[in-house]
Amino acid sequence: MTPPASAGPPRPGRPPLRARWIAFKTFRHRLEPTGDTVDDCPVYAAGASRLVLPAGTHHFRQLRTCAICGKEMTGRPVIQSAGLEPSAEPHMCQACSTGAAGTL
Question: The whole model's pTM is what?
Answer without folding.
Answer: 0.67
